[in-house]
Specification:
single chain; alpha/beta; Hypothetical Protein Ychn, Chain: A; 5-stranded parallel beta sheet; 4 helices; DsrEFH-like; Sulphur_relay_DsrE/F-like
Length: about 110
Amino acid sequence: MSSFLLVLSKDPYTTETPDLVLDIGLNAKEKGNEVTLYLVEDGVTAARKSDFGNKLAAAHKKGIKIYADDKAVLSRSLTNKLINWVEVKEIGTLLDYIMDYDKVAWF
């Protein structure tokens, strides 16, 4: 079993990249891998209460951990607008994760 860190920097409203990232994560999870999705920059908008937010909720229920960068959340005024189970973390955490995970991909 490997650990995958998928970093999403794109919003789901202007590109299909978030759907691709979610598919990659779900496929890896179905194969028994540990999967974490870390939202940065415009990627944090994916965790708003929305249709894509519902997709993230389904992924979370399947065991994918989802984190959001605190500065990106704050700068986009999303502090109280994210789906409840998304954990907001300081960007330094992402650097630690990059060193700790077996495989890292940035989108």
